C-alpha cells in the first residue's frame, strides 16, 4: 500500500476492522491524539505547544520537532497504544474540488487521474499526491457523468507529517484531509432522525478555519480560509502593542460583547480593555462571517431546494467567550458547539473546554487500515 496516497472517507463508518487506529491531529498549537474502539474512548492525549511556536512566524521545523517529542512522550506512557496511525492535512497546500467527469470505472479513472485533475489543480501535478472519490452518477447536457471529489496535497506537506510518525515508529495507514475528518466525526455523532439534515461545520483553529457543508452526510462544499485564532492574536498585538503570547492571553480572558446591554454594562464600569478586546475580536469575526456566508450562498446557488439546518462550531477557538452567540446573531441561525465525544464512554474523558479541539483527531480515529 502506498501510504503517501490520500485516502478519502468511506461512505459509512465501520468498527469491525481488525485493528484500532490512533487518530493524530498535528495542530499548529497543540497535539491531539485519540483511540476509540466501538463506542469507547480507549485513550487520548492533549499537549499544548509553547505559545510562540503557534505563530505563523515560528520555524516550522521547531514546531514539528516539538510535536514529535510530545507524541514520543505520550507513546512511552501508553505502551499499548496502536502502532498504526491516521493523520490529516489542510491549508493552502491542499486543494479539494467537486467536479463532473465523464463516466468511467474507478479502475480506469485511477489510470487517468493525473490528466483529468490537471485543469482543476493550481499546482504542478508532479508536486502533489492526488486522490479521488466518486460521489455518484449525474446527467449533464444529456451525457452520463460522475460527480467526483478531487483532492491534491503537496508532497512536502505530507512528508513533514509522515516524518513525525516515522520518528516515533508509528505506521501511517491513512492520510486524510481535515474537512473529511470532520465529516467522519460528524457521522460518528449523527443522531437518528437527522439523516436528511444539511449541516455547516466550522473548525476554527489557530491558522486555518475549515468549513464543510454536508447534505445527508455527504460533503458538498469544502473550504479552508485563513481567518482564525492567530488572526485575532495579530489584531490584538497591533491594538495593544503587545507580544504574541500576551495577545493569546488577552484572547482567552476576553469575550465578545454581543448585546447592547453587555456593551453598556462594560462602559458603565469604565472597562476600556474589555471593550477594546471585544471590538478587536469582532473586527476579525466580521471577515469570517463574510466567508461563512459566501459558503452558504454558494451551496444554496447549487442546491436551491435545500437549506442549511444546523451550524456546528469546533476547534480551539470555540472557547472564545461569546463566539457562538455572536455567530448565531450574525448568521441568523443557532450555532452549537460540536462535542465529538458526545455519546461515547471512557475513563477520564477530556474536559468540556478541550473537546471541540478533538474533532479532527476523533474523525481520524474512526478510520481503519484498508479504508478507501
List keywords for this structure.
10 helices, 372 residues, disordered N terminus, 27% strand, Nucleotidyltransferase, domain 5, alpha/beta
Give your account of this protein's structure.
With 372 residues, the chain is α/β, with parallel strands linked by helices. It has one domain (22-229, 286-365): ATPase, nucleotide binding domain (Nucleotidyltransferase, domain 5), CATH 3.30.420.40. Helices cover 36% and strands 27% of the residues. The chain has helices spanning 60-77, 106-117, 155-167, 178-189, 229-240, 244-253, 260-268, 272-302, 323-331, 359-365, and strands at residues 22-26, 30-37, 40-48, 84-89, 94-102, 128-140, 143-154, 171-177, 198-204, 209-215, 218-225, 310-314, 335-337. The longest helix is centred in the last third of the chain and has 31 residues, at 272-302. It starts with 21 loop residues before the first strand and ends in a 7-residue tail after the last helix. The model is unreliable at 1-18 (pLDDT under 50).
